[in-house]
Amino acid sequence: MQRINIVLRHCLIALGIIALLTCIGCDGKRQPDAAMAGRLRVVTTIGMITDIVKNVGDAHVEVTGLMGPGVDPHLYKATAGDVARLASAKLIFYNGLHLESKMGEILAKMTGNTKTVAVTDDVNRARLLTPPEFEGQYDPHLWFDVTLWMKAVEKVRDTLTEIDPGHQADYEANAERYLAELAKLHRYVKTQAEKVPPEQRVLVTAHDAFNYFGNAYGFEVRGLQGISTATEAGIADVQELATFIAERRIPAIFVESSVSSRSIEAVKAAVKSRGFNVEIGGELFSDAMGTEGTPEGTYIGMVQHNIDTIVTALTAVQP
Ligand SMILES: [Zn+2]
Hints:
Shape: globular
Structural class: alpha/beta
Helix content: 40-55%
CATH topology of the largest domain: Rossmann fold
Bound molecules: zinc ion
Number of strands: 8
């Protein structure tokens, strides 16, 4: 009996030492790393791309999105932490078409073990818009034509499959499911848009992010600032837009979550001085999604929010 007790005690001590050794150096931060072991490390820029990677990569990827809610990708500069995250990633997805214009150099430097992919690379250039004010470059905001964004989903699916062929079947099944949801979303936006009488389908926002939206769903689009937010709107731009709104008797204009509302409020005041009242029809998510955990924190939710907000404001009866 005594002997058994001694053996048992020795066993317990040995177990204790093993447990102690296993725990040395492990803290709250390291635990998730262990859980993430074996997952493909992916870093993304805008939230809409992060959302694609979450949907298509699901359990096989660990995705870090650099730009959160309210962040303007045209002006975003990588922090020291971002550079470290980018360097430790196996795969980086960004929009391209000069959307992340301040990150071009850093993305170009990522070589070696890191693959850098623009999700817009395979989109047929004939379907891209080239507004004159963007000096011969393509308009980067293609996520507002849902059918074009579906091409970005295919690009993510194909790249994940190329890098991690062992999970090809899962990536394909996930992409198929997500693409079906996006096809449904496209039909929803189309149906909602048709509720606005054609002559009232005019969308005025802070910056020119909605040209693809206008093109796909039949809206005339006017942005106060250009395709990029890098240049401030001038007084002349405000006055010109105010005249347009007053003449066309447009009932509502919109602010954007990633652009200061100051300029749109200046337009509202300038319209008022012309004897017409234009309402602020609500906030649209243009270049960033909403807070994580809210419906607008996903690409599908943000697109639904935008079209619902636009339709409600443009069809509201003027007092
Ligand atoms: Zn933009």
